[in-house]
Amino acid sequence: MSCELARTTLHGYFDGELDAARSAEFEDHLSTCSDCATALETQDLLRSSLHRAQLYEKAPSSLRNRVIAGLQQAVPPPAVLTRPGWQWLSVAAALLLIVYASWRFLPGSSEGDEAQLAAQVVDAHLRSLQPGHLSDVVSTDQHTVKPWFDGRLDFAPPVRDLAIQGFPLQGGRLDVVHGRTVAALVYGRRKHIVSVFIWPTSRKDISLGSGSAQGYQWLDWCRGGMEFWAVSDVAASDLGEFQRLLTP
After folding, report:
1. Which of 102, 213, 215, 245 is least crowded, fewest Cβ atoms below 10 Å from its Cβ?
2. Which strands, in side-by-side order, build the sheet including 226-232?
3. What's the start-to-end Cα distance of the chain, in Å?
């Protein structure tokens, strides 16, 4: 692979680690570099295949309790600690930190996953606001936007026209969140933009969380086998109304 950016920048872009400016620069580069475009497509196909294979297993909460209990039993009483004992205490503390971090960021651990995803979807929304990045398909017709995703994704995102309710559909695009290609729908709210990121999930219908970052509100929920993340600088009440209208 001859392009230097394929070795130095592509993986950071693919993992959502670049800031908005560097991501926009790399996306401009992709339009003229076949090496990077091919490498990015290969990475996306590999990640999607691994995701669909579901090769991981969620560790039960009882495992964390057993590890912590074992570490507590392994630490000598303070009164008899020698230098080797202090070394054992350092090892135990390091193991405990690893266990805690692994437990927090395991797939299905909502606190760690939600914080990471919230940062990524807000960054993706900010990238889309760069000139020429908002939509791959520009249309107010849901029967034009929805079929556009056919063949570009391995799922069919739900698309609704909410113009009458004050959230007109403006188009859609492909985006990358958490290492996989997702659908991104674009809606308007007066002079504001609402981005909705959608991908399949096995979770039950539930509202997962809400918050704000960098001046933008976000909502996360699951409905009908899909996970939704809505991001915008509209008021939180407007974003809540949008959620109820999009997935009633």
Report:
1. 215
2. 137-138, 169-177, 180-189, 192-200, 226-232, 216-223, 206-213
3. 48
pLDDT digits (tens, 9 = 90+) for 165-198: 999 999 999 998 878 899 999 999 999 999 999 9
Q: Could you tell me the CA-to-CA distances from 230 to 17, 43, 189, 227 in Å, in that order?
A: 20, 26, 13, 10
Can you tell me the distance from the alpha carbon of 156 to that of 117, in angstroms, rounded to the nearest whole number? 21
- Map residue 168 onto helix, strand or coil: coil
Rounded distance, CA 134 to CA 106, Å? 32
Residue 129 gets which letter from DSSP? T
Residue type, 93: A
| 153 φ, ψ (degrees, to nearest 5) | -135, 160
Alpha helices in 137-227 (DSSP H): 142-148
pTM metric for this prediction: 0.56
- For 151, 198, 207, 226, 231, the CA distances from 155, given in Å and listed in that order, are 9, 10, 21, 10, 21
Name the token pair of 165: 């309710």
Q: HEC string of 29-49?
A: HHCCCHHHHHHHHHHHHHHHH
